[in-house]
Every structure is written in C-alpha cells, then in structure tokens.
Amino acid sequence: MSDLTMNILGFPAVNRDLTVQVRDPITQNVVREVTPFLDGTVRVPNIDPGAYEISLTHPNLALPVLRRPIRVLPIGDTRVSVVIDPSQFKNTPIEDIPEANLTPVRDLATSVSETVTPLTNKLPGEAILAQDWNSLASATRDLSNAFNESMQLVSPVGHNHPEYEAKFDEITTNFTTLLNVLSSALAELQRQIQTERLRQQVLNVLDTAQIDPASPQGKEFLDPIASLSSGITNSPTQFGRDVRNAAVQVSTKLEGLIDAKQSDPNFVNSDQVKTLSSALDLHKAQTSTTYASELQYQRVLDRNLGGGLLNLTK
Questions:
Q1: Which of 87, 204, 282, 283 could anchor a disulfide with 272, C-beta 3.0 to 4.6 Å?
Q2: CB of 232 within 8 A of CB of 195?
Q3: Domain 2-89 carries which CATH code?
Q4: Which neighbouring-strand residues pair with 56?
Q5: Rounded to whole angstroms, how far apart are CA atoms 166 and 69?
C-alpha cells in the first residue's frame, strides 16, 4: 500500500468546499473521497499503487473543477500538485465609480454670473470700454471651460462606462463557459442514448437470427458497441472517430451474417436488419468536431431513427 499527497493550488478561497475523488480510470468507480485542508493539502493514505483519475468537485459547479489522470507509485509517498482555474468561480461585482464632484464647476459658473452682472446696466449709446469687453470675453471663456469640464466629469469621452463594460465581458465569459458545460453534458447524454439504441438494434438482429448475444458470434457484434460506452466523455472529434469505427465493424459483421443467411429471406428482408443497416449508414457519416455540430448530428439520427429516449423506455 502507498500514500498519496496532493497540493491544490490556484484559488485557496474554495478549498474548504472542494471534494476530491480518486476514481478507477476504467470503471469510474470512486476508490476514495476526501476533503482538502484549508491550505489545499490532501492526504490519501493506504491506497493501492496504480493508475487513477482524480476529480475535484464544488457544490456550485455542475461539472468537476478539474479532472486529470495520476499514477500512485509502489514505493514511497506519491506527491501530486494541481492548479485550478479561479475564473470558474469569478463573479466580480460592478465597480462602484465615485460620484463626480461638480462643486468647482458650479462655483466657476457662479463667478461668471457675478462678473457679467455689472455689464447688464449699459444704456443705449453708452460706450463699451475695453475693460468691459475683456471682462465679457473672460467670462465667456470661463463659462466654456466650466461646461467642458462638467462634460468630462459627468460622462467620460465617448460616453464609455468601463465598469459596465468589464462586467459585461465577465458575464459573456461566464455564459460561454456555462454554454460549453451544458453542450458537453447534453452531448454526453445523447451519446449514451444513441449508443444504447444502437446496442438494442443489434440485439434485435441477433434475436431475429437466433444468435445468443453471449456467444462468440454475438460478442463480435456487441463488443464495438461496448467500446463506445467507455468513451462517452471523449472529445467530439475522438468520439466521432470511435462511432465511425464501430459502425464499420458492425456493418462488416452484418454483411457477413446476411450472406450466411441468404437462404432465409425472412431474416434478410426483416425490419430489424433494415433498421440496423440504416442506423449504421448514418453512424458512418459522423464527422462532428464540436459539441454544437454533434448535437445537430444527433438530431438527424432522431429524425431518421425516431426519438431515442422515448423508444428506449417503451
């Protein structure tokens, strides 16, 4: 038995709410579940050496904060350091911009009023002296400067609101992250539904051909489907490649079975064989590289093969 020590770095504020799960990388069964100390230290004593997957979860997040494979060494204390991304927990309040102090501007405008007041008593035909003209010009200049200053204080140039722009950028990032999480979760759910439907279609063909699913021939049909189930969480590109490979393998077996059953037209022309053949042709065309395109592909499958979950629950 060995001991595993982990250090969680990156965002100490969430350490108290994290849960660390040590999982079997193949079955995904939880081998050990522990809570880290406030400093991010995690101690897992007496664990068998070998390959594992660690998963960090937080109650406020739908998906794990972090997942990564590790290997516990057979000798000594295995030490692992992981860094979590603080942006997953970011929710910055809108910046409180101090109110502009308009008192100096107001005082300047008041002084302009006081300066020009004596010039309002001129009588018709009375001369405007240079001193009066200069006072009026200076007052106009001061009033213009006061107006310009007030515009700078009340609203920045271009009417920007940097505190709102920063918050909108953060909301956009958070929404994009949430959308990616939901898209991946929905795609993985659809993968399970489509994989189970394909498995059921294969079982229907084996039943029509009177082949035991547990027999070697039955396993040749079902093993490629089982491999899809183990790769549900793969990337869209990898899962699409796995789907195509499995469809090609099952299609080859189906063609061989049809050739062997040529003397049985009831089997060759059965609805079960036609349905599986159509499904395999659609799966061979799986070329999705993003979760969005994969969900569109899953909709195509549902339109051609019928509602997946509803059919499976019947």
A1: 204
A2: yes
A3: 2.60.40.1120
A4: 20, 66
A5: 36
- In three-state secondary structure terms, 49 is coil
Q: Where are the beta strands (DSSP E) in 159-199?
A: none
CB 42 within 8 A of CB 20: yes
Contact yes or no for 64/56 (Cβ under 8 A)? yes
In whole angstroms, what is the distance from residue 184 CA to residue 211 CA?
A: 37
pTM of the model: 0.51
DSSP 280: H
- How far apart (Å, rounded) are the C-alpha atoms in residues 35 and 19? 5
Q: How many CA atoms lie within 13 A of 166 on its CB side?
A: 11
Summarize pLDDT for 149-202 with one digit per residue, the tens: 776 666 555 556 777 777 788 788 778 877 888 888 888 899 999 899 999 999
The full set of domain ranges for the chain reads 2-89, 103-160, 168-312
The CATH architecture assigned to 168-312 reads Up-down Bundle (1.20)
